[in-house]
């Protein structure tokens, strides 16, 4: 290690595995592995995280619960001064608690907030002493609906204050700003400020009589007193997004109304709001405002000629984009987060994603810190989090890969010490996980389709069975190079997992997104089939042992896959999937807004009047008699995105001609599985279902 900074690695029990090397363990709760053994510690950790098994046999089955229980620790956030770490710690009840780790003493996490019957969902530092947090948004079996709410608390657990009441009332109307007491449930945390004050920004919804959120307001609230300041004077109507500067002052807002997207900028001369852009919500190129720096510099996304979104600076006077982008990616839209130093008051880096997560550091010191950490943890992607990045002694490091769930470290730049805080999922051994790779295939019409493949661990001795997982959305990027419970669980059972980014998926350029318009059950469906056929052609997959699976839109694609590609798939697994496209337009108790039904869905899915024949042809419910393969259907009784009527109607229709239908209903679940109990039950059913129909790859 001559010429390199000396690194020490501390392992903090009980949150990380203890040192397994034959060295004396000092007294106390911490084991300190230093100097002479440091290289061995780091090399062994990296090998443990990444080395594949060399034999042809698959490893013993990892228990199902290890994949689907909550992380023992998660969502770490470093205080602005870098001296404390806020984390969510798991509990036997499954309700996460907010805890603090003192990075100077490195004692065990101290729980400061534990709410009964509901966990802490997210949290952030307001300043070095104070935090804000909210709870999961969910419907209770009693019929009550709980919004996230908002609370603030000191890091020692004192001065707990409720800022927003989570209990949802039935009253509609504009979000009032309370003069005393907590704000009503329609308010949410917008952002924290890096100015050292006790204030945060909150965003309030205006709820129409039909339950749609049609407008928003912005306010600044003191987390100690609850005093609020309105920031919404003179703003245009139907605001959906607020872009603020580093002092929390609104700079740009976007609006949505009748299929139009408006962008308004605040005038530096008059203080009023001026229309900057007015476009169709989909289809027109426009500057998508992203961040504002400490110097007032606005950054925005815009499509290049090849259709990929790139990051540009915006001229504050003319509001024109810089001729050359700050950051443009080959084959991927730019999506990312900015790293601002709140003390130096400048942009120091940008986190973004291509095939894997990456970071562009603009500050030489931060770039050197990243290189030092990467040398210590060479087999993982190591993302740095900090607020006073250039001045605080510590930075938070999240170390992860396709096979390793997040492992959290703190790196001290003064002492050159890398301290292991916790493994998020200590029951997962990365050596027993499958490798994940992003490929690109050519669809039958020539379009390039990204597809993420998860291979079972071990060396294949024959073609394996496969599960094609179709992501929900569908207008999102569905896959990421990271440890994913669903895919890794299936791979651990010997299945090749194929996850296509079919046309309509975002993140791969506007032409890829545009190619999916009005292609539900058509070209989008062909892309999924082409991904399965491509995997067979690579020699990885047994063509006679392929099952299709997915949730939400993915569940819809499962049903249409069994309709259109009966000979390709031997079975299907649909959870919370759309079964009738027409029902999405007519059902009144879902959470799809009238704006979406009237202007977005007709453009993206189809117009109920103009495209009625196509929507009937691509409705699984109308084609239920064609589904003859074994199918597993699972739905949540409290689902408002895809109400359970979708599942029940299809179940009743398909069972008239298909006896091999397994139905499960989870009365207390919504659009996805919230509880560990449900996740374990559902994936246990999936494991048995696959074993019956395409045979476990472990045989």
């Amino acid at each position: 290690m001559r010429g390199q900074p000396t690194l020490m690695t501390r392992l903090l029990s009980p949150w990380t595995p203890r040192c397994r090397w034959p060295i004396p363990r000092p007294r106390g709760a911490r084991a300190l592995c230093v100097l002479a053994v440091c290289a061995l510690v780091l090399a062994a950790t990296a090998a443990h995280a990444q080395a594949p098994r060399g034999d042809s046999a698959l490893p013993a089955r990892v228990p199902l619960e290890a994949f689907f229980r909550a992380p023992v620790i998660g969502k770490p956030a470093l205080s602005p001064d870098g001296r404390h770490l806020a984390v969510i710690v798991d509990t036997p009840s499954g309700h996460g608690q907010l805890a603090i780790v003192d990075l100077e003493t490195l004692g065990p996490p101290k729980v400061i907030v534990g709410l009964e019957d509901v966990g802490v969902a997210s949290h952030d530092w307001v300043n070095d002493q104070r935090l804000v947090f909210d709870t999961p948004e969910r419907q209770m079996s009693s019929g009550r609906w709980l919004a996230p709410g908002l609370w603030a608390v000191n890091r020692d657990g004192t001065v707990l204050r409720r800022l927003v009441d989570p209990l949802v009332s039935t009253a509609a109307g504009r979000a009032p700003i309370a003069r005393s007491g907590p704000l009503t449930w329609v308010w949410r945390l917008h952002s924290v400020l890096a100015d050292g004050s006790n204030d945060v920004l909150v965003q309030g919804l205006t709820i129409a009589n039909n339950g749609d959120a049609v407008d928003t307001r912005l306010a600044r609230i003191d987390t100690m007193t609850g005093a609020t300041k309105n920031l919404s004077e003179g703003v245009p109507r139907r605001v959906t997004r607020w872009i603020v500067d580093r002092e929390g002052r609104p700079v740009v807002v976007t609006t949505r109304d009748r299929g139009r997207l408006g962008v308004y900028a605040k005038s530096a001369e008059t203080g009023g709001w001026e229309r900057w852009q007015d476009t169709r919500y989909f289809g027109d190129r426009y500057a998508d405002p992203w961040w504002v720096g400490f110097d007032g510099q606005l950054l925005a996304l815009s499509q290049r000629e090849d259709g990929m979104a790139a990051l540009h600076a915006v001229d504050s006077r003319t509001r024109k984009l810089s001729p050359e982008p700050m950051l443009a990616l080959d084959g991927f839209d730019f999506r990312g987060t900015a790293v601002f130093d709140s003390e130096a008051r400048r942009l120091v880096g940008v986190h973004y994603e291509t095939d894997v997560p990456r970071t562009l550091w603009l500050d030489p010191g931060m770039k050197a810190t990243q290189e030092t950490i990467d040398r210590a943890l060479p087999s993982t992607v190591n993302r740095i989090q900090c607020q006073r990045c250039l001045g605080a002694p510590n930075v938070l490091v999240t170390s992860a890969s396709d096979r390793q769930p997040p492992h959290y470290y703190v790196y001290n730049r003064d002492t050159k010490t890398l301290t292991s805080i916790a493994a998020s999922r200590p029951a997962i051994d990365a050596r027993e996980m499958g490798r994940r790779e992003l490929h690109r295939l050519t669809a039958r019409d020539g379009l390039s389709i990204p597809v993420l493949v998860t291979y079972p661990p071990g060396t294949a001795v024959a073609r394996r069975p496969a599960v094609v997982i179709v992501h929900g959305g569908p207008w999102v990027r569905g896959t990421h190079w990271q440890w994913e419970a669903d895919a890794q669980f299936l791979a651990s059972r010997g299945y090749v997992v194929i996850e296509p980014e079919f046309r309509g998926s975002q993140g791969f350029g506007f032409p890829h997104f545009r190619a999916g318009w009005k292609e539900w059950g058509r070209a989008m469906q062909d892309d999924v089939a082409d991904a399965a056929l491509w995997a067979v052609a690579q020699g990885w997959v047994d063509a006679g042992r392929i099952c299709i699976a997915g949730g939400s839109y993915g569940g819809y694609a499962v049903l249409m896959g069994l309709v259109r590609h009966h000979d390709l798939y031997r079975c299907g697994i649909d959870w919370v999937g759309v079964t009738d496209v027409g029902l999405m337009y007519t059902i009144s108790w879902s959470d799809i807004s009238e704006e979406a039904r009237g202007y977005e869905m007709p453009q993206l899915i189809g117009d109920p009047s103009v495209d009625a024949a196509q929507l009937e042809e691509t409705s699984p419910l109308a084609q239920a008699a064609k589904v003859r393969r074994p199918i597993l259907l699972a739905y949540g009784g409290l689902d408002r995105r895809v109400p359970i009527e979708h599942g029940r109607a299809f179940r009743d229709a398909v069972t008239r001609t298909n006896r091999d239908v397994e139905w499960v209903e989870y009365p207390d679940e919504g659009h996805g599985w919230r509880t560990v109990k449900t996740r374990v039950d559902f994936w246990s059913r999936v494991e048995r279902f696959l074993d019956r129909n395409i045979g476990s790859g472990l045989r």
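The mean pLDDT is 88. The radius of gyration is 26 Å.
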